[in-house]
Amino acid sequence: MQCVITNPVSEQIVHGRGTRVMVVVSFTTITFDNAILFSPIIESEYSMKLVVFGAISRTGIPLIQQALDAGHEVVGFLRTPSKMSIQHERLTLIQGDVMTADDVNRAITPDVDAVLNTIGAMKDSPPDMLPRGTDNIIMAMQKNDVKRFVFMTGAAVAAPQDQPKLLHRFIDLMFKMFLSDTVRQGEEALARLHASDRDWLVVRAPRLTDGDYTGNIRVGWVGVNTGTQLNRADAAAFMLRQITSNEYLKQAPLVTN
What we know:
Layout: E1 3-6, E2 9-15, E3 20-32, E4 35-44, E5 49-53, H1 60-69, E6 73-78, E7 91-95, H2 101-107, E8 114-117, H3 129-143, E9 148-154, H4 166-178, H5 180-195, E10 199-205, E11 207-209, E12 217-220, E13 229-231, H6 232-241, E14 254-256
Parallel strand pairs: 5-6, 5-8, 6-7, 8-9, 9-10, 11-13
Antiparallel strand pairs: 1-3, 2-3, 3-4, 4-12, 12-14
Helix pairs in contact: 1-6, 3-5
C-alpha cells in the first residue's frame, strides 16, 4: 500500500477573444495504491467565457455555480429559463433546443473560450437528439473558432483503454438491454467528437449522486482504478478543470469518487 501526496501549482496563459486570460489551477494530488485523487481549486485572475449546455441539469447547476465562483462569465443554454435557480450578473441564459442549429449559434459566439455539455439522452429523448445536438455544437464552434469542448456521457459508452471485469460486462449488458438507445446516442456523439478538429475531451461518469463537493476524484477506465459512483459536484469540478488542462485531451476517461 502506497500513498503519495503532492501539492503542485500550475499556471497557464490562455488567449481569449480579445482578452489575455490567466488561469491559475492549484490542486492537491493524492496517489493511493495507483489511484489518483484530485482536490482542485480553480482561481481566475481574469475570467473566461464559458457556454454550458444542459444548464439546469443536476450536473449543470453545480457546474455553473462553480464557474461563477471561479470568476468566469457563463452562458447557460436551456429549454426553460424559468427553472434556473441561479441568478448572477455574470450569468446569461439562452433559451433554445440543442437540435436547432440557429439556437446553438446564438449561444456560441466568437468571444467564447470553452463549451461544456451536460445534456444526456433520456428514454423519451428523440432518437437523434445527442448526435445531432453534438453536430450543431461542433459546427458553431468551428464557425466561431472556439476550440475547447468538454463533454459528459455515461460509463456504458466504451473507450479503448477499458479493461472490464465480469461485473462490468454484466452491467454493460443490462444497460444495452434496457437503455440501448441512450447508450447508442452516447456512442454516436463520441464518434462525432473523434471526427472533429476541436480540442475535445469526454468525461464518462457512472451512477451520479447528489451531495456536497468532496474533492476525492478517481480518474481511470472501466476496470482500472475507478469506483461505481460520482458526486455531481465533484463531476462539475473535474469538468471545469478541463477547460485549461490537456492531460486527457481527446480521451474519454472514467471519473468516479
